[in-house]
Input
Amino acid sequence: MDWQRTYAAVRECLNSGATLAEILPGVTLHGQDVGKWLTKQR
Output
């Protein structure tokens, strides 16, 4: 599922030292805009 891949990408960002406040729309990982996805989840 797409949400699982995106969630895993957000977790990867967090494990690399990013904070939730830093993951804004436009932040991409593995070709996915994880910041946009995270904003929608909030």
Q: What stands out?
A: The radius of gyration is 9 Å.
